[in-house]
Amino acid sequence: MEKTNYIPALRFNWLTKLYNPLIAFTMPELKFKSALIEQANILPHHHVLDFGVGTATLSLLVRKTQPECAIDGVDVDEKIVKIAKEKVEKEKAQIMITKYDGIVLPYADNSFDRVITSLVFHHLDKDQKLNSLKEIKRVLKPNGELHIADWGKAANPIMRGLFYLVQLLDGFKTTTDNVKGFLPSYIDTTGFSNIANTTNYSTIFGTLSLYKSIVKK
Ligand SMILES: C[S@@+](CC[C@H](N)C(=O)[O-])C[C@H]1O[C@@H](n2cnc3c(N)ncnc32)[C@H](O)[C@@H]1O
């Protein structure tokens, strides 16, 4: 079966174990992930997909804030999926973690009320971004919502300068359209509506943005 290339959480597989402590130490992680969950307004009967679940930090936070909803997490990286499964098991949380090929999401059409995703889209090149958005649209129910946290348009030259650190780590091919602010237009192109850039955070790595949008089918 065809498989997509992917960039591991910290670019190199041997750094994956350091991902959790590094992000928690260097980023306002709890703040922006909590804000993403709050804007997603997840209800008890909702089915939520965490796209690019990583080590399941965001999914576990959803589980704490909304104990009754159903949560799935999906990722391409076998190594990080293993870490996520161990974390979820340790916390006895009801979250289904699945590895996939990075191309076709392993879910039926119209499965989810919300798709949430954090720090994933800057790992994807333009084609992968567009394909992922189309797949997310496919698995969302009509009027379902997509909530993204990722690097956004640099708010000022200082934020632009700081973002070069991320680009050196993750590569220019996947990150340049983020920092140029192209993500909302990609979301628009793939058929979402009511697209809004709800919040921006100034971080030591640049401007981190939250976006929301709705699927009209
Ligand atoms: C920087 S990590 C973020 C992890 C997690 N969402 C978080 O906020 O902690 C980026 C994640 O995106 C995943 N990823 C890369 N390409 C992907 C793709 N095509 N589809 C889904 N996930 C992908 C990586 O394996 C990695 O786990």
Overview of this protein structure:
The chain has 217 residues and is α/β, with parallel strands linked by helices. The chain has one domain: 3-Layer(aba) Sandwich (Rossmann fold). The chain contains 8 helices and 7 strands, in the order ααβαβαββαβαααββ. It has a 7-stranded mixed β-sheet, with helices on both faces. Helix 6 runs antiparallel to helix 7. It starts with 18 loop residues before the first helix and ends with a strand. The mean pLDDT is 93. The structure holds S-adenosylmethionine. The site of S-adenosylmethionine has 23 residues, from helix 3 and helix 5.
CATH domain class:
Alpha Beta
CATH superfamily: Vaccinia Virus protein VP39
- Low-confidence sequence ranges: none
Question: Which architecture does the CATH hierarchy give at level 2?
Answer: 3-Layer(aba) Sandwich
CATH topology value: Rossmann fold
Number of helical elements: 8
DSSP E strands, number: 7
Succession of helices and strands: HHEHEHEEHEHHHEE
Rough outline: globular
Mean pLDDT, nearest integer? Answer: 93
From the alpha-carbon coordinates, what is the Rg to the nearest angstrom? 16 Å
